Prior knowledge:
Elements: H1 3-15, H2 20-31, E1 35-38, H3 40-43, H4 50-63, E2 73-78, E3 85-88, E4 94-97, E5 102-106, E6 114-125, E7 134-138, E8 141-145, E9 149-154, E10 160-167, E11 170-176, E12 179-185, E13 189-194, E14 200-204, E15 219-225, H5 226-237, E16 241-243, H6 246-249, E17 252-257, H7 263-270, E18 276-281, E19 284-289
Parallel strand pairs: 1-2, 6-7, 16-19
Antiparallel strand pairs: 2-5, 3-4, 4-6, 5-6, 6-9, 7-8, 8-11, 9-10, 10-13, 11-12, 13-14, 15-17, 18-19
Amino acid sequence: MSPGDEIAEQKWLAEHGFDSDVTEDLETLFNEGYTHKRDTHRIAMFWAAAASFAALIVAFTIIFSSIGRKDVTWTEYTAAIGQTETMELPDGSVICLNAGTKVIYPSRFDGHERKIFVDGEVYAHISSNKKHPFIISSGDVRLKVLGTTFDFKSYRENECVEVRLIEGSVELDMDIMGKESTMKMVPGSMVQYDRKSGKVDMQCFDLAHFRSFESGRIINFYGISMRDIAKDLTRVFGSTVVVEDEKLANTHILALFTNGESLDQILDALNRDNKMTITRKDGVTYLKSI
C-alpha cells in the first residue's frame, strides 16, 4: 500500500469511528489478499449529498483494493435512516441492523476468529462455534461472542456504548483512555460505557419484559443522555432533533417505548415535567431546557 493509500485508509476509518487497532486488523486482511465489494443498493439512502457519496466511493475503493489471492470479498451493508434491516452472515448467524447502522463483513469466515466491523446497533443471534469465536469490532470497543443472543449498540457519534445479553456469554473489551478493560457478562446483564467520561457501569435488566428493536419500533433509553437520545430519534424517525443547551444535553433519562409511539408522543413523554421547550423550524426539532 502506498503512503497515499494508507493516509486515505486511515482518514476513512477515522471518519467512520474505527480506531488504529481496527486499521491494523484490516491491513492484515488486505495483505493476505482479500478483495472487497460494495452493496451499493443498500446504502444509497444513507448519504444525501451526491458529492460526499462520490468521495466515499473513491476512498472506499482505495482502502479495499487488493490483488485478490483468495476468493473472499468484503461487503459494506447499511440500514437506511428510519429503517431496520435483517441479514444472514456466512456462518448462519442472523443480525438485525437498527437505523443508520453500518456493517462490514466477509463472504466467508477464515482463520481462528469470525470478525465483522460495526458502526451502529445490532440485535444478533450468533451461531455457536467454540473453536471460532465471533468478534464485533467497533472503534474503541470489541465484543467477543461464543454463541449467543444480544443487543450491541455502538454508534460512532454517540457517547454511550451499550451491550445487553439475552442468552449465552460475551466479553466486552474497551480501550478506556488508553487502558484496556474487559467485562464478562451473563444473561440479564447490561454494560454501559461512556466514551466521554470513561465510566463503565454493569447492571441487570428484566429479561422477561425486554423487547428489542427487532420486534418493531421498540426504543429503549436506559438512563442515557439527552444528547444521545436526540441522535437516536434522528436516526429512527429520519427527522433531525437538536438539543440546544448543555444542561439538557447532559440530562440522563430512563424511558421505554414499546407501542410504536410517534416522535411527538415520545417527546411529550420525555417532557412530562415540562422542563424543556420543543420548537420546530424548517423540519428540524429543537429542544431546550427551561
